[in-house]
């Protein structure tokens, strides 16, 4: 058992090291999970009864403050990785190890697209090129002067322009607001815990309509009408509508999330329904 004076000195040194480590993590943008928060909290609790003077209590408070900053960084780190469809290498390794060899081979064959190219000039290809050029009509016959046709001007009604999709029947803001209301109604009917699966809401009877709904959904998320909740491990994605549009302030850059929407995926979904 160390004397009380030595015990306090050792405690101050440990708290100072914790503070410096936390500042180093925050200042150098390192992985915040390098700090063992639980172990450091236990250290703070161990030496807290030893502090009697204000300087030691301030050191204790500063340690707690720095650990709280690290916990905030850990939360932001997890949120960033989840919203960017980040897949941890360890999780990928575990998923691959659990697959059967037949499944691995089948997946490899489906995504493998070998490229084979052969470039060679032969007597036969030269003869074909010569026959092609000889069969062409002379330039003076191909480039006859064309007389422009006179086209009369006229007027078009708004209904005609809407039918030709030159004008919208509604303003974009109206369409977006109606689509937002539709999302909230679908969540109330088919959703769970205030959210709905991305495919359940976006995919429609036709592929063109599906693309249009995905386009409108992207604007709902961008303009703060809704947000995406992504679970990379389960490969699931949900849309969560807000009750009121969320106005984003500050200079924080938004994260762009690419979502593939191919005709093949739509056809598989259509057959599944």
Can you give me a brief rundown of this structure?
The protein is mainly alpha-helical.
Describe the protein in words.
A three-stranded antiparallel β-sheet has the order 1-3-2. Helix content is 59%, strand content 5%. The protein is mainly alpha-helical and 273 residues long. Among the domains are: 4-83; 170-272, Orthogonal Bundle (Arc Repressor Mutant, subunit A), CATH 1.10.10.580.
Q: Using the alpha-carbon principal axes, give the shape.
A: elongated
Structural class: mainly alpha
Side by side, the strands of the main sheet go: 1-3-2
Based on CA atoms alone, the radius of gyration comes out at 32 Å
The stretches of 5 or more residues where confidence is low (pLDDT under 50) are none
Name given to the CATH homologous superfamily of the domain at 170-272: Structural maintenance of chromosome 1. Chain E
Oligomer: single chain
Main sheet properties: 3 strands, antiparallel
First-to-last CA distance? 72 Å
The CATH topology of the domain at 170-272 = Arc Repressor Mutant, subunit A
What is the average of the pLDDT values? 80
CATH architecture of the domain at 170-272: Orthogonal Bundle
Strand % is 5-15%
Top CATH class of the domain at 170-272? Mainly Alpha
Share of residues in helices = 55-70%
Order of helices and strands: HHHHHHHHHEHHEEH
E-strand count? 3
What characteristics describe this protein?
mainly alpha, Arc Repressor Mutant, subunit A, elongated
Write the layout of secondary structure elements.
Blueprint lengths: L3 H25 L8 H11 L6 H30 L5 H10 L2 H11 L11 H13 L3 H4 L15 H6 L8 H19 L5 E2 H5 L4 H16 L3 E6 L4 E6 L21 H10 L1
Antiparallel strand pairs: 1-3, 2-3
Helix pairs in contact: 1-2, 1-3, 2-3
């Amino acid at each position: 058992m160390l004397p009380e004076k030595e015990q306090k000195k050792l405690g101050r040194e440990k708290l100072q090291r914790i503070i410096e480590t936390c500042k180093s993590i925050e200042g150098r943008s390192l992985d915040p999970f390098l700090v063992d928060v639980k172990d450091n909290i236990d250290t703070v609790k161990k030496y807290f009864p030893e502090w009697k003077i204000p300087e030691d209590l301030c050191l204790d408070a500063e340690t707690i403050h720095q650990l709280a900053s690290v916990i905030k960084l850990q939360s932001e780190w997890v949120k960033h990785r989840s919203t960017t469809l980040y897949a941890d290498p360890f999780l990928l390794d575990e998923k691959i190890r659990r697959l059967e060899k037949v499944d691995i081979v089948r997946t490899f064959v489906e995504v493998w697209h070998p490229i084979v190219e052969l470039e060679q000039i032969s007597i036969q290809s030269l003869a074909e090129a010569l026959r092609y050029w000889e069969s062409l009509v002379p330039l003076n016959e191909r480039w006859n002067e064309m007389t422009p046709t006179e086209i009369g001007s006229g007027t078009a009604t708004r209904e005609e322009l809407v039918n030709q999709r030159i004008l919208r029947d509604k303003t974009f803001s109206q369409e977006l607001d109606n689509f937002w209301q539709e999302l909230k109604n679908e969540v109330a009917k088919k959703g769970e815990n205030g959210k709905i699966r991305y495919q359940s809401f976006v995919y429609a009877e036709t592929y063109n309509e599906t693309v249009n709904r995905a386009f409108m959904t992207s604007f709902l998320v961008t303009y703060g009408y809704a947000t995406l909740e992504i679970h990379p491990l389960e490969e699931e994605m949900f849309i969560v509508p807000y009750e009121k549009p969320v106005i984003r302030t500050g200079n924080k850059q938004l994260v762009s999330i690419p979502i593939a929407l191919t005709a093949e995926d739509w056809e598989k979904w259509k057959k599944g329904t």
